[in-house]
Amino acid sequence: MDLIKADVGSTIDFGVLLVGGNGDVSIGTPEVDNAKVVAEVIEHGRGPKILVFKYKNKTRYRRRQGHRQDYTRLQIKEIVTEAGSFTEAPEKPKSAAPKRRRKPKAEPVAEETPATEAVAPDAAAVAEAPTAEAPAEAEAKPERAGRTTAKKPAAKRPRKAEPKAEADEPKAEETPQPAPEAKDQPEETE
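Request: output the structure for the sequence above.
Response:
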């Protein structure tokens, strides 16, 4: 409720504008006779900050103003009507606003590698091994801890053109081109 000038712990009586219940509704002019609400002042405080921003385009007009509304927190103790008196409901414990909980981080999925026995390759097989396996081993780096996304496939590299065999295609003989004449020499006339 808006700020009321009353001490914390004091009781306040309010007039009632409308009373309803059991199918009966009575409207006051301006208040219902013999009806009132008794409340106790719990605390005085200020609401959350509201920013008021005024803006007009094309004129460089900008105004920013903050506002916090003062309030009084009340607890209803009793509602008195012609039909009788209603006392307060059992007091609920005051709970703070629920805190936002962060989503738990997804644990990285560890790839399980089967335990295989390492066999020592022959020295001759190592010498004949193609060099194309070395880049494949370099690409198989262990993933960093904490990553949860799947590894992207490696980009395809363009293949190098294989050299053409000289015996398959005969080379066309190159015709010698005349050397360009030098401009520094004077022309001979006959």
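The chain has two helices and eight strands.
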